[in-house]
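User: Good morning. I'm curious how DIR would be positioned relative to this chain. Could you predict the structure with it bound?
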Amino acid sequence: KTVAIVGCPFGGGGIPTKAGVDKGPSHIVDAGLVTQLEELGWKVEFDGHQRFESLVPENDPPIGKLKNPRTVSAVCESVAKVVGGHARAGRLPVSLGGDHSLAMGTISGTLDAYPDACVIYVDAHTDINTVATTDSGNMHGMPVSFLMGLSSGVDAFAWLKGALRPERMVYIGLRDLDASEKRILRENSIRAFSMRDVDRHGICRVVGMALDRVNPDRDRPIHLSFDIDALDPSVAPSTVLPVQGGLTFREGHSVCDAIHETGLLVALDLVEVNPSIGDVKDVQQTVRVACSLIRTALGETLV
Ligand code: DIR
Ligand code: MN
Ligand code: MN
Ligand code: MN
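Assistant: Good morning! Here's the predicted structure, ligand included:
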């Protein structure tokens, strides 16, 4: 029962004018995450955050619209090796971001170790724009397309296998999609539970339906990729792209709780905490919620 904290201080896939997301991991660890998880009975492995400086090319001009493509690729390849290594050794990697382009690394690592794993992606956004459809060129809006092999032909990402099958991944919390992304979901029959589904059915039924889709026999390992912006901005204000109408504090925790209850969680991401957004109280609140979600996914109960 060992957790490995993989701190990923990286914002190269984020919105250039909203720097600071690379400071998320240090804030989350400094808030006491290691001790909190030890108190839950986990053995916690953490020997400092990942260091990406040496991987970053001196010159990284756009490829098509993609911003910082070689940097994002090199960082994610390195993260994939680290996460995959922990998973193969039987440790549960908890990756802290950083922007969500990191999911190309974390989910690749999980799939290397557990080829039959499924992914629960909790986010306000689908992050599934392709090389052809991205408007912004920011790669935090694209990781899922690369993981599914929908963005092929970029040499810099040759290492990425594109092995994630559409029926093995499901979204919860969506409310801010590009038209191109809605089309990609339809064309690939990707199951997506938006905030409208949460309104109608309640979060517990939504998580149940999501699991029925990706894990009908409840026998597949689960990778939970949690973007803090899935939560309402009133709950988690310090994030890169806050969108109104998100999950409440309890709904966010219910997702984590239900996933923990399956006993199938093998990897967790908590990304997009940006300590440069909002005032000191906003940052404190967001970091506290992030730690609390992680604890719940790892078995903390209320009573
Ligand atoms: C937009 C925003 N769909 C894009 N995506 C974001 O840039 O591709 N994802 N913010 O997190
Ligand atoms: Mn995201
Ligand atoms: Mn998001
Ligand atoms: Mn994002």
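The first strand starts at residue 2 and ends at 8. The chain has ten helices and eight strands.
Let me know if you'd like a different ligand tried.
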